[in-house]
Amino acid sequence: DQQVKQNSPSLSVQEGRISILNCDYTNSMFDYFLWYKKYPAEGPTFLISISSIKDKNEDGRFTVFLNKSAKHLSLHIVPSQPGDSAVYFCAATTRYNQGGKLIFGQGTELSVKP
Amino acid sequence: DVKVTQSSRYLVKRTGEKVFLECVQDMDHENMFWYRQDPGLGLRLIYFSYDVKMKEKGDIPEGYSVSREKKERFSLILESASTNQTSMYLCASTEIGGLSTDTQYFGPGTRLTVL
Question: Quick one: closest CA in A to B3, which residue?
Answer without folding.
Answer: A43
